[in-house]
Amino acid sequence: MAAAGVSTVTCTRGGLTWRVPVGDAHIGFGLFVDGGFEQDKITALLTWLSARGRAPGPDDVVVDIGANIGSTSIVMARARGCRVLAIEPAHANFELLRDNVELNDLQERVMLVHAAVMPSRGTVMVEAGDDIGAAAVRSATESGPPAVGGAAVTTAAGMPLADALSLAAVLPSEVSLVWADVQGSETTVINTGADLWERGVPLWAEYEPGLLARHGGVEAFFAAAGTHFDRFIEARDLLTRGAAAVPQSTARLAEVLSREPLQTDVLLLPARFQS
Questions:
Q1: What is the 3-state composition of the chain as percent helix, strand, coil, each rounded to the nearest 5?
Q2: 184 found inside a domain
């Protein structure tokens, strides 16, 4: 298809319809072949939250930061009947995100914000290439060619998480979960979402040392997590033990995550999260 000049393909899998870019070997491929991407993690997280009476419901909003083309937002909205605030800075990804929301008739439940979560308002540089999952915001100190081979640099609006909520008319009291896959900007998400954590909202975040190094480093991530959250569950534990997974103190976060030199995910729980 790529050789014939086809850029996207539309498919239906498991009752959901997806428009995906041809040639993307990760998210697009997963949606086209399996009908989902990281579905095991989404299911494990919702199972754990459900067992504690904290899974998102129709009155709740899930915030999906780095929403890409909707692989988490659309699944959450359909599975839980909740509203979702999907935030995505890469232009091509955002266009496909909007298409996928419309293809699944979820316009009334999935709110879209074309932006990146940043410490302050302004214009940010976004690197995006053929691998749609690798789209990333540049830090303020970066210059020169893209860090990801084959990527092009475009611009997007940047704003703190609280501002993105206001833009979509979402109240902090409505948010029940934040999912962040932001290619190294997780520390910024934590620091600009303090009001949510103070209310007991949990955060699912990616941990990838190489990407975090572009945005303050792993120590800044650990410091921010320790300031705003008191417990965590590493993704592997959640996938293995399901609803029986037991949170650990964030005092052990650096020790546990440092065993994962490449990438993992972590559920961060604030003090006011009570099951």
A1: 35, 25, 35
A2: yes
Dihedral, 216, 213, 258, 45 alpha carbons, nearest 10: 80
Angstrom distance (rounded) from CA 121 to CA 140: 12
Give the tens place of pLDDT for each residue, 30-73: 999 989 999 999 999 999 999 999 999 999 999 999 999 999 99
Residue 222 lies in a domain: yes
What does pTM read for this prediction? 0.94
- Any domain includes 255: yes
Asked whether the beta carbons of 69 and 20 are under 8 A apart, the reply is: yes
Distance (Å, whole) CA 24 – CA 197: 34
Nearest to 13 by CA among 89, 104, 97: 104
- Percentage of residues in the chain with pLDDT exceeding 90? 80
- The dihedral sign for the CA sequence 240, 246, 252, 254: positive
Q: Is residue 145 part of a domain?
A: yes
The per-residue pLDDT for range 145-186, each reduced to its tens digit, is 565 555 688 899 999 999 999 999 999 999 999 999 999 999
For residue 141, the enclosing domain spans 38-269
Q: What is the total count of domains within the chain?
A: 1
Long-range contacts of 29-37 (CB under 8 A, 24+ apart): 30/71, 31/69, 31/71, 36/71, 36/75, 37/71, 37/72
CATH number for the domain that contains residue 113: 3.40.50.150
